[in-house]
């Protein structure tokens, strides 16, 4: 078994100013997406420019932060809003919903498309392969924050948490116990699947000519599958629990529309075969 490396969530502190690793991970994710977008825009045959990518990143950042935080508070932390509406602003404490962030990005992509005279799927097919590195960075931020743990496990890579920092995971253990039961590091599973594996598959898929909307549809299908799979070993949010059947979680429920929409988009894309949805080649 492994022991959780008790990392201070605060990366840098200058007097009262604290810079949290969680926020830095989001910044790293945005920079990676921007750099990859710039590289793809510079490739031969692309109708994108570096300036367009810069503008697009602004819309995406606003969508991710605003949508992710609002989505988390509405889907998972509505009681916190009732207790204190200002809790919505406490992003540094963690609590960002991917599904809320996705809604924010969808709105940002639509607004960007209107500004630049592009259709929604011209933009979304370009954006989709750039998103997984940000998901990877965000899940590493969850790991450093010590949140989103899985169920107890005897897997050799399962992690024991220090009870002094995580007393909620040591409930029921004898007094004086220093470490929790071994738990699945589910946030690392998500970093691997939703981040690295999803990036590799989408990068490959979008590097070849695809019908418009296909790259976006593939993103939705793969993310929904990976997220729903990890939810089987991830502990549900304590204040929500399972929604049904002692296994259905809020994350799975929110991923179901993504799976259905993505499958429909793929079917329509390959039926109409409207060129060109490849993020690596062209925007139109």
Low-confidence stretches: 277-284
The oligomeric state is: single chain
Number of domains: 1
Helical amount: 40-55%
Strand-helix topology:
Layout: E1 2-3, E2 10-14, E3 17-20, H1 21-41, H2 50-75, H3 78-83, H4 98-116, H5 120-127, H6 132-145, E4 159-160, H7 186-206, H8 214-231, H9 250-272
Parallel strand pairs: 1-4
Antiparallel strand pairs: 2-3
Helix pairs in contact: 1-2, 1-6, 2-4, 4-5, 6-7, 7-8, 8-9
Structure description:
With 284 residues, the protein is mostly helical. A hairpin with a 2-residue loop joins strand 2 (10-14) and strand 3. It has one domain (11-152, 182-272). The chain has nine helices and four strands, in the order βββααααααβααα. It is globular. Residues 277-284 have low confidence and may be disordered. Helix 2 packs antiparallel against helix 4 (98-116) and helix 7 (186-206) runs antiparallel to helix 8. Strands 1-4 form a two-stranded parallel ribbon. Strands 2-3 form a two-stranded antiparallel sheet.
Characteristic terms for this protein:
single chain, 284 residues, mainly alpha, two-stranded parallel sheet, two-stranded antiparallel sheet, 9 helices, 4 strands, 55% helix, disordered C terminus
Describe the structure in brief.
Helix content is 55%, strand content 5%. The protein has helices at residues 21-41, 50-75, 78-83, 98-116, 120-127, 132-145, 186-206, 214-231, 250-272, and strands at 2-3, 10-14, 17-20, 159-160. Strand 2 and strand 3 form a beta hairpin.
């Amino acid at each position: 078994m492994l022991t959780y490396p008790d990392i201070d969530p605060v990366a840098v502190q200058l007097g009262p100013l604290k810079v949290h690793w969680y926020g830095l991970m989001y910044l790293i994710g945005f920079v990676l997406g921007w750099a990859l977008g710039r590289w793809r825009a510079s490739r031969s045959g692309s109708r994108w420019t570096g300036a367009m990518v810069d503008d697009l990143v602004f819309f995406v950042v606003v969508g991710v932060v605003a949508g992710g935080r609002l989505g988390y508070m509405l889907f998972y932390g509505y009681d916190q809003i009732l207790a204190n509406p200002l809790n919505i602003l406490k992003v540094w404490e963690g609590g960002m919903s991917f599904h809320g962030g996705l809604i924010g990005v969808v709105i940002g992509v639509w607004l960007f498309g209107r500004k630049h005279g592009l259709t929604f799927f011209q933009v979304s097919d370009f954006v989709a392969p750039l998103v997984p590195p940000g998901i990877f960075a965000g899940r590493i931020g969850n790991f450093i924050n010590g949140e989103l743990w899985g169920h107890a496990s005897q897997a050799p890579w399962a992690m024991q948490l220090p009870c002094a920092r995580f007393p909620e995971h040591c409930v029921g253990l004898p007094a004086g116990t220093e470490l929790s039961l071994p738990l699945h590091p589910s946030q690392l599973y998500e970093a691997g699947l939703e981040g690295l594996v999803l990036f590799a598959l989408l990068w490959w898929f979008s590097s070849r000519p695809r019908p418009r909307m296909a790259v976006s549809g593939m993103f939705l299908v793969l993310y929904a599958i990976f997220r729903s799979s990890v939810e089987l070993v991830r502990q549900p949010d304590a204040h929500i629990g399972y929604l049904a059947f002692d296994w259905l979680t809020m994350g799975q429920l929110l991923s179901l529309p993504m799976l259905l929409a993505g499958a429909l988009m793929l079917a329509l894309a390959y039926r109409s075969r409207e060129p060109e949805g490849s993020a690596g080649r062209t925007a139109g």
